[in-house]
Amino acid sequence: MTRLTKTDLINWADTKLSEGQLPELIRRLIIASNKTLEAVVVPYGNSVGRSGLDGYVRSSASSAYIAAGESVWELGTNKEHVSKANDDFKKRTNGTTRFRQNELTYHCITPRHWEKKGEWQCNPGPARQKVVGYWKEIRVYDVDDLLGWLSDCPAVEAWFSRILGKATAGLRDVNGYWENVAKTNAGIMNAKVLLAGREELTHRVQSHFADPNGMQKPQAIACRSPAEVVPFAVASLIDEGNETVIARTVVVDSRARWEQLIVEESELGLIVTPQVQPTREELQHAFGCNHRVVYCSETGDWKLPRLSEFAVRQSLVSSGIGGGESTQHAKQCGGNGQLLLDRLSGLHAPANVNGSRLDDRVKVACLLLVGWNGEHSADREIFAILSGMPYEDVEASLVADANDPVGLLFRAAGHYRLLSPELAWIRHAPLITKRVTDTFADTIRYVLADDDPTAAMSSNERFLAQFHGQRPEFSGTLRQNMVHSLAIAGSMGPTRLRLDPSMSPSFVNWIVQSSLKPLLMLCWMLSNATFIPAGHLRR
After folding, report:
1. Are 379 and 475 within 8 A, CB to CB?
2. Residues 39/40/46/48 CA torsion (nearest 10 deg)
3. 32-41, 44-53, 79-88, 93-102: which range is least confident on average?
4. pLDDT tier for residue 30 given thresholds of 50, 70 and 90
5. Angle value at C-alpha 445, between 443 and 451, nearest 5 degrees
6. For residue 496, what pLDDT is reported?
7. What whole-number distance in Å separates Cα of residue 158 and Cα of residue 35?
8. pLDDT at residue 160 is higher than 90
9. For residue 106, what is the enclosing H or E element?
């Protein structure tokens, strides 16, 4: 059910803007609610006011609000809606042959309350100077019908609610989401900026939502920075510009709306934010209702690659950003789309400022680990060592943060990961102290030295060995992400991370070097290659 009210629509109809927006609203509703459309002509915006019909639609099958076959549409926001309807009906009836009327359904639309619309529908036109029509069918929709129609089309409802300045809880329309995340000093950036070097996956996402043939299973996109998945998916749709897909697709960022939408039968496109954390059963239900779903997962058939620096620079220049500035943005983002968006917004959050309610000591542990398995006892112990707090005491706050729209964490199947690791480091690195880094250096050496006893085994042998308890002490999630943490620190450097002034400026070089030196020395001895100090790896 729509959250909009009759008063909302009637008040909107009193504004000048409604004259151009009503045709766009009807166009979106038509496209969103009938999959058998063959032609839709409903001019809007600056095209409103031209002579001729307000709309023409041809559909091979009917739907709740659209008749099968050909139909003509007359729209108006006038307070004197009956008078307007009479004038339109007289003009269209006199200007259309009887034979042609027999082939057409006549639609009359007003966002006003029409108490006697049923009577008019049975006996249309002015009472005096009666005009006899021979239309195939006559339909009248007023404010009550429009509210019902909006209820059937969540993506259009989200768009229209935004137009009215009324947020739709848990839902964002594709256009509105993109306008929000893609704002730069030069205007709305080109969607290709977030697709640079990701063309193959972009085409897959576009086909997933647009393919009219058969059901499409929900698609998980795996990414080292989960916060990138939704902006990338939205950018893919914006770049393609498929009007039908955009009219049926929403970004879902609350569990309540997700649970509500997956049981609907309107075949929606659903781009799910990491905080929603859909379950396997919910995804199966969405698949059964033929919804097209894209969501973020720890693992998935689709992997989101890092951005191409060269292609990002080209796209930024095409968006109106200067060559020098584009080069700097492309280089500094390091292939991370979320970090690029943060830089382009020009509204960088101050250090230590974020909506996350986690204790600062817990934030530091999250930064240094980047990701871990919350159901793995050894991983939990490492987290407790770095945070200085028993894992059991912070577990509830970690779960709450992963469910918080402004939290730091993504959680799936018991595994945790920073939503945007690079961005989190930039914002929270000043919380890191010398004591914690000393502990981290000792800890990571121990974790990375943890040998996998099954590494040289065949797949069958590995399965049996793991069944009998022969496995690494720490999870692969922890080991991979601790290395990721070092890579972030080494690539960004101490100046950019705005470290605590009490710490040595060479902290980043030291932490990377002290953590990896034993491993690098071993590689050097094995390969007889020249040793490269960790401090130079940033270059």
Report:
1. yes
2. 110
3. 44-53
4. very high
5. 110
6. 65
7. 20
8. yes
9. strand 104-109
Burial class (CB in 10 A: 0-12, 13-18, 19+), 515: buried
Give the number of other CB atoms < 10 A from CB of residue 79: 12
d(CA 306, CA 463): 32
What's the per-residue H, E or C state across 417-471?
EECCHHHHHHHHHHHCCHHHHHHHHHHHHHHHCCCCCCCCCCHHHHHHHHHCCCC
Residue pair 408/356 in contact (Cβ under 8 Å)? The answer is yes
β-strand 187-188 against 183-184: which pairing, if any? Answer: antiparallel
Distance in angstroms (rounded) separating the CA atoms of residues 305 and 196: 10
pLDDT tens digit sequence for 278-288 = 999 999 999 99
Q: What are the pLDDT digits (tens) for 433-446?
A: 888 888 888 888 88
Give the residues across from 460 on adjacent strands: none
Q: Is the pLDDT of residue 468 over 60?
A: no
Radius of gyration of the chain (CA): 29
Contact at 8 Å (CB) between 216 and 292?
Answer: yes
Q: Give percent helix, percent strand, percent coil of the chain, each to the nearest 5.
A: 50, 10, 35
* pLDDT band per the 50, 70, 90 thresholds, residue 406: confident
Residue 321 has pLDDT above 60, yes or no: yes
What domains are there in the chain, each with its CATH number?
A: 6-153 (3.40.91), 169-303 (3.40.50), 360-538 (no CATH)
Is the CA virtual torsion 526, 527, 530, 531 positive or negative? Answer: negative
Task: Provide the mean pLDDT of the chain.
Answer: 85
Helix axes 174-181, 229-240, angle to 10 degrees: 110
Three-state SS string over 166-207 comes to CCCCCEEEHHHHHHHHCEECCEECCHHHHHCCCHHHHHHHHH
Query: Tokens at residue 465, please?
Result: 């060995």
In this predicted structure, the answer to whether residue 403 has a pLDDT above a threshold of 60 is yes
| CA-based torsion, 421, 427, 428, 431: positive or negative | positive
